[in-house]
Amino acid sequence: GTRTFSIIKPDATRRNLTGKVTAMLEEAGLRVVASKRIHMTREQAEGFYAVHKERPFFGELVDFMISGPVVVQVLEGENAMQRNRDIMGATNPADAAPGTIRKELAESLEANTVHGSDSDENAAIEIAFFFNEDEIV
Ligand code: ATP
Ligand code: MG
Predict the structure, then answer these.
(1) Which DSSP string corresponds to 50-110?
(2) ipTM above 0.90, yes or no
């Protein structure tokens, strides 16, 4: 299989949904091969979302992502990046398909429960941002 990178966002850790989100990922055929709960610093969140720094919602997105702990994970499976995007659902939960994580669990466009890498190239970059290779087993 291949790998992708996931974040269980602060809205989900706040509502004690870490297990429910992880179960939905596992039921979709993804294996959690690395996982840690962290509280990102502002510098980490700004670095992670640097691609969005010109977007109007960047400041609010960073504030949200440091509003509580997150769980960063490496997921492995056949076609892991696309498989994860499919189970996450659309960015805006109002547009997400039934059965997806965002449709079932997300609060809003911003507080949308999960992040998932949007390409294999970005997955490798995002994994390396949070994990050393020896933490992935
Ligand atoms: P993610 O990157 O978190 O997996 P995504 O790829 O579906 O989500 P992006 O377009 O990369 O969506 O936006 C990154 C995140 O920024 C979204 O998940 C959401 O939390 C937030 N976001 C996106 N668009 C808006 C917006 N218009 N207003 C507020 N927040 C937004
Ligand atoms: Mg994205």
Answers:
(1) GGGTTSTTHHHHHHHHTSS-EEEEEEEETTHHHHHHHHH--SSGGGPPTTSHHHHH--SSS
(2) yes
Using the CB atoms, write b or e for 88-121: b if 16+ within 10 Å: bbbeebeebeeebbbbbbbeeebbbbbbbbeeee
Measured CA to CA, the distance from residue 38 to residue 4 in angstroms comes to 18
Which residue in this structure is represented by tokens 């939960």? 93
The structure's pTM equals 0.97
9 carries a ligand binding annotation: yes
Residue identified by tokens 């720094």 is: 53
* Tokens found for residue 134: 């020896």
For residue 103, the model assigns a pLDDT of 98
Contact 116, 81 (CB under 8 A): yes
The Cα–Cα gap between 42 and 119 comes to 24
Is 53 annotated to bind ligand?
no
Given a contact cutoff of 8 angstroms between Cβ atoms, the answer to whether 66 and 40 are in contact is yes
Confidence of residue 107 (pLDDT cuts 50, 70, 90): very high
Q: How high is the pLDDT of residue 113?
A: 99
CA of 73 to the centre of ligand 2 (A): 15
